[in-house]
Amino acid sequence: MKILLEVKNLYKSFEGTPVLKDINFRVEEGEFIAIMGQSGSGKSTLLYCISGMDRPTSGNILLYGKDISKLSDKQMSEVRLKQMGFIFQHSYLLKNLSIRDNIVLPGFKANILSREQINQNANILMEKTGIHSVGDHDIKMVSGGQLQRAAICRALINQPDILFGDEPTGALNSGATKEVMNILNEINHQGTTIIIVTHDAKVASRASRVIFLGDGAIHDELNLGKYEEIEEKNLYREKKLTSWLERQDF
Ligand SMILES: Nc1ncnc2c1ncn2[C@@H]1O[C@H](COP(=O)(O)OP(=O)(O)OP(=O)(O)O)[C@@H](O)[C@H]1O
Ligand SMILES: [Mg+2]
User: Fold this and answer.
1) How far is the CA of 10 from the centre of ligand 1 (A)?
2) Which of 11, 13, 45 best tests ligand 1's pocket when mutated (most atoms within 8 Å of CB)?
3) How far apart are CA 182 and CA 196, in angstroms?
4) Ligand 2: centre distance to CA 187 (Å)
5) Is residue 115 left, alpha or beta, with left meaning phi > 0 and alpha meaning psi from -120 to 50?
6) Ligand 2 mean position to 217 CA, how many Å?
7) Which residues surround ligand 2, an ion (CB under 5 A)?
8) Which residue ranges does the record assign to the ABC transporter domain (predicted)?
9) Closest ligand to residue 55's CA
10) Predicted local distance difference test score (pLDDT) of residue 249
11) Considering only CA atoms, which residue is closest to atom 18 of ligand 1?
């Protein structure tokens, strides 16, 4: 498998205080990684550094072999817009636009696909995530789960190589969490590489690999293999992950 992302000797400090210490890992195309760890262990900081939203203090981040940690802000935002998608705990959709307009906006901004392709992608994504019927609704008129599904559509409009999520289900109830995770598993199955940060073991059990951060360093990692929607296998994955998490003494 091709290496999509490589993190080498990554350090990050805030005003001299080290937060990430010598982080090294590789992400292959098609992986689904969940980053876990105690509050304050540096999960969000790591996600922001590897996705170019923040700069590492030292170290390298290679995207398909190209060091993105040295790019100018302008070049970095171009990479983010065209090759990466982002979802957060809250959807951050624009208030005065419809769901559909929010989804297509980054498509027009990136200017890599034609108007027809952008609209077609939006239709396919909204259909896939079950929000097609609310496409013309104002964002105030839909549920939290629907907003998050719209945020996923928006993140995928330019067909990114990798999708990053910081607690993407953190504000959702268990039903909406399951729906969002089903969508993420489907997208991943179709080839998009995913890295999310989560506190929720049930959510992390959908990933193919779990990385545990402790005190700013990679403490351990667990291979779960590709997720399949089989009840018995799901229970086994959750059990395996839970007992592994119990052994992480942070
Ligand atoms: N912009 C910043 N300036 C100063 N310190 C920061 C900044 N961002 C994060 N930190 C510090 O870095 C450490 C790691 O923070 P981070 O947000 O990455 O943790 P986290 O693992 O995502 O926690 P949580 O699970 O609560 O979201 C914390 O001690 C935090 O206070
Ligand atoms: Mg965080």
Assistant:
1) 16
2) 45
3) 14
4) 23
5) alpha
6) 15
7) 44
8) 5-240
9) 1
10) 75
11) 42
CA atoms within 13 A on the CB side of 27: 33
Nearest by Cα to 167 from 154, 155, 180: 180
* Residue 41 CA to ligand 1 centre (angstroms): 7
Q: Return the pLDDT at 230.
A: 87
Query: Is the Cβ–Cβ distance between 87 and 163 less than 8 Å?
Result: yes
Give percent above pLDDT 70 in the chain: 100
Render pLDDT for 103-146 as a digit per residue (tens, 0 to 9): 999 999 998 999 999 999 999 999 999 999 999 999 999 999 99
| Per-residue tokens: 169 | 């289900």
**Residue minimizing CA distance to atom 5 of ligand 1:** 14
Residue 139: CATH number of its domain: 3.40.50.300
Distances (CA, A) of 152 to 92, 158, 233: 11, 11, 26
Distances (CA, A) of 240 to 100, 192, 218: 40, 25, 19
Mean pLDDT, residues 7-17 taken together: 97
